Amino acid sequence: MKPTLYLECASGISGDMTVAALLDLGADQSVLEHVLNSLPIDGFTVKVSRVKKAGLDVCDFDVILEQENHDHDMEYLHPASDAAPAPRADASAPEHDSHEAHTHPHGHRHTQGQEHGHAHHHMHRGLSDILSIIQKADMTARAKQLAVQIFTILAEAEAKAHGTSLEEVHFHEVGAVDSIVDIISAAVCLDNLDITDVILPVLQEGSGTIRCQHGILPIPVPATANIIEKYQIPIRVSQTQGEFVTPSGAAIAAAIRTKGRLPDAFRIVRTGLGGGKRAYERPSILRAMLIEPSDTQQDTIGNDVIYKLETNIDDCTGEMLGYVMECLFDAGAKDVHYFPVYMKKNRPAYQLNVLCTQDDIPRLEQIIFRQTTTIGIRRQRMERSLLPRSIKTIQTEYGEIQVKICETGGYRQAYPEYESVARICRQTGGSFPDIYRKLLETSQKQCP
Question: Which residues pair with 104 in a beta bridge?
Fold first, then answer.
């Protein structure tokens, strides 16, 4: 059984913190460097090092730009007064986060100050330009898909904040490089660690205001707030002044979060600590843990609570229901099924049932409301008993397969996983009943 990633965002989350935590967790740095070297952009170098945060040894991931980004200038980010800041060399670059979005037309150029004795010009990159850069990178299809998803979430949030469309959102060239590197790096590390399940219970955010190119904005900044609202990520605001959750960090969280609740008991496989660049009252650290069910959970029958969402629909096509089932499973539903019923006026209809955790209810209900014609959903809290289960890989005459093992009262039963059986049927042309029967016998012999 693959471990689950648990992100403890007690000090918020940003792109560089996420990459650093994943590298500390064991992601292959050489794989990441190969991907970054393949990017069709320049003007940056990457440094991975160890730093001290509150006395703790943590990993630091630093994107060093040839055009300096003053994102880490805390006095400028959090001015003591509302007075306008003194002019500086990067006056046209984003001072808040590294990907400040703008809606200027294509070809518009900004001229920077003369502090270094010469003028710098920098263009804008649209979302299509950035997605093209991602597609040209030498990385796996899964990593590309995740990077595209994260940047699209980010662009949608910026578009909403600026009241414009995705096509019109543009990112400063200097800032965009920083964000491109952070987001691609996060996607590569997640793919390299083979992470599919991510538990993120809550985002801890600071309070107050932050100064950006457009003026002084409240925390969380609009783009971050838009992501948190759309993807229903729980947030807790502290009294500490400062921005803990950047838009890039929020976009990564929204793209990878599959669960919001930790199991009652678990075993920590490995821990990674990623440091942030900004200095606040509390140390800027993102802790990432790979966890798996504890032995206690595997040895006893578990009891927990599940929720059933239920609605009757008499004006949806079969295609709609098939699609919504796929969407619900992709969003984390435990089970989805529907069956024919008769409603008022003898109308033939379907009853849609979804089993899920309490944390997943808001997200799944939004999918049902958006993808079907229903106007109401019933909820039911249900207690359930769970047999301890595990997944084991065994060797058979057809190669390796996955076996599900369930136990109760000293009795153990092993079943070949459907995907393993289906894969072998496709490879050999054998019938499903025959292949399943052979694999079941092998499974029970090897897992007595």
Answer: none
Residue 382, Ramachandran bin (φ over 0: left; ψ between -120 and 50: alpha; else beta) = beta
Give yes or no for a cis peptide into 220 (omega within 30° of 0): yes
pLDDT tens column, 289-322: 999 876 544 444 556 788 999 999 988 888 889 9
Q: Tell me, what's the pLDDT at 88? A: 29
Span of 79-88, 115-124, 327-336 with lowest mean pLDDT:
79-88
List the one residue out of 155, 160, 97 whose CA is nearest residue 126.
155
Residues 276 and 95: their CA atoms lie apart, in Å, by: 16
Q: Which residue type sits at 304?
A: D
pTM above 0.85, yes or no: no
The two three-digit tokens of residue 318, written as one number: 């079969």
Please compute, for residue 126, the number of CA atoms within 13 A of its CA located in the half-sphere on the CB side. 12
**What is the rounded average pLDDT for all residues in the chain?**
82
First to last CA, the chain: 19
Between 317 and 148, the more confident residue is 148
Buried b (16+ CB within 10 A) or exposed e, 345-376: eeeebbebbbbbbebbbebbbebbeebbebee
SS3 content of the chain, % helix, strand, coil (to 5): 35, 30, 30
- Find out whether 228 and 250 touch, Cβ atoms under 8 Å: yes
Sheet with 266-275, strands from edge to edge, namely 44-53, 56-65, 266-275, 285-293, 4-8, 198-199
Of 218, 211, 207, which Cα lies nearest the Cα of 244? 207
Strands 203-207, 235-241: pairing kind: parallel
